[in-house]
């Protein structure tokens, strides 16, 4: 039997959580991602996308593994006809679910460009959404330059404006029934945390810690010397303590949201959609400076989706010692 672990969850503005190490549970590199599930239903966020199955993704070279990388991309060769479901793309989800965990993603490249809406996130299978919760770790649209991390939950989960984090709070209601599913979001302060700036720096590392005291997200660009060695070297043990890793870019403390009742086991998801509820909205597409209408752009400009790809070096999933 395990001795109970005493966790101190102090207030949102001070120390984040008690120190705890996590051991590597699984590392996904290259071909390992072909064990994930390819999602083929309509995009729930109403994107102009046609999510293809694994054999189609392989045959069309939309999902490619090498010894050292895994690449997922949009079709950048073909026009989309008005009657088609959308531009061909990929959405995959992990075979296992995780609760208390640390995810470390070493990423070379993320999808960018007008009309794109990529995300790396975790979500419950429970349904109907948002039962069991959603954690968005990397997300943005069009040619944004700053990452947005957010939570989407059922009722009674909110965040204070000021927390122990480097990013800026943009919304405080995690409850998806507020403001058209906006969720509680934090915009990252580093302009190379998303999009073209991220890619031109050779990418970097994202880490998400989900624990009893809350959820934290960190980002380090490829050339940032403050990245912890255990993250950059993918060591078998990590300790996501802010006194060792620095304060997180986004912090969602459990003080104003009961995590046990709002978050259950989650699958890990990568996707890439186009237009839809966020990227295609007048306030996003219209304000981006991108040409034409979002759907017209997706349909008629395949070569503009050249940069619309994920290229992953590795994904490490860590779970608590001895569990
Ligand atoms: C498939 O994509 C990979 C990665 O971009 C590339 O190296 C390869 O040449 C492509 N193969 C074909 C047949 O297009
Ligand atoms: C690894 O994670 C899986 C899925 O959550 C879990 O069932 C398993 O017990 C974990 N293994 C270890 C050694 O922690
Ligand atoms: C935040 O959530 C708590 C319940 O956890 C609730 O009592 C409170 O009214 C909420 N505050 C706002 C501003 O919604
Ligand atoms: C390196 O990362 C730290 C922690 O996120 C950040 O405060 C700092 O601005 C970054 N430095 C550079 C040069 O990007
Ligand atoms: C986004 O792309 C459009 C079209 O290329 C351009 O006009 C606009 O300036 C870009 N916006 C940013 C923030 O880079």
From TrEMBL:
Residues 36-287 form the GH16 domain. Coiled coil: none annotated. SUPFAM superfamilies: Concanavalin A-like lectins/glucanases. One of its GO terms (molecular function) is hydrolase activity, hydrolyzing O-glycosyl compounds. PROSITE patterns: GH16_2. Keywords: Hydrolase, Signal. Pfam families: GH16_XgeA. InterPro entries: Beta-glucanase-like, ConA-like_dom_sf, Glycosyl_Hydrlase_16. The keyword Signal applies. Residues 1-18 form the signal peptide. This is Glycoside hydrolase family 16 protein. One of its GO terms (biological process) is glucan catabolic process.
């Amino acid at each position: 039997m395990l001795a109970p672990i005493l966790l101190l969850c102090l207030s949102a503005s001070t120390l984040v959580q008690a120190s705890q190490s996590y051991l590597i549970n699984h590392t996904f590199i290259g071909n390992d991602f072909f064990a994930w599930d390819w999602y083929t239903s309509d995009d729930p966020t109403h994107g102009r996308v046609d999510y293809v199955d694994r054999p189609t993704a392989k045959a069309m070279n939309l999902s490619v593994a090498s010894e050292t990388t895994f690449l997922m991309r949009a079709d950048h060769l073909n026009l989309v006809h008005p009657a088609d479901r959308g531009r061909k793309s990929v959405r995959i989800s992990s075979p296992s679910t995780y609760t208390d965990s640390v995810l470390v993603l070493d990423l070379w490249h993320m999808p960018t460009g007008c009309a794109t809406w990529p995300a790396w996130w975790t979500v419950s299978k429970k349904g109907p959404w948002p039962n069991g919760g959603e954690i968005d770790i990397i997300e943005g649209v069009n040619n944004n330059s700053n990452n947005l991390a957010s939570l989407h939950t059922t009722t009674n989960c909110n965040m204070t404006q000021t927390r122990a984090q480097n990013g800026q709070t943009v919304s405080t209601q995690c409850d998806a029934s507020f403001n058209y599913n906006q969720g509680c979001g934090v915009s990252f302060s580093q302009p190379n945390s998303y999009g073209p700036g991220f890619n031109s720096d050779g990418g970097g590392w994202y880490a998400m810690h989900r624990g009893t005291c809350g959820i934290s997200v960190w980002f380090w660009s490829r050339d940032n010397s403050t990245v912890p060695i255990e993250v950059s070297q993918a060591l078998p043990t990590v300790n996501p303590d802010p006194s060792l890793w620095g304060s997180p870019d986004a912090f969602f403390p459990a003080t104003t949201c009961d995590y046990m009742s709002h978050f259950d086991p989650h699958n890990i998801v990568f996707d890439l959609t186009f237009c839809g509820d966020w990227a295609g909205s007048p306030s996003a597409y219209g304000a981006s400076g991108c040409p034409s209408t979002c759907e017209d752009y997706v349909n008629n400009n395949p070569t503009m989706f050249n940069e619309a790809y994920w290229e992953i070096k590795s994904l490490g999933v860590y779970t608590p010692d001895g569990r």
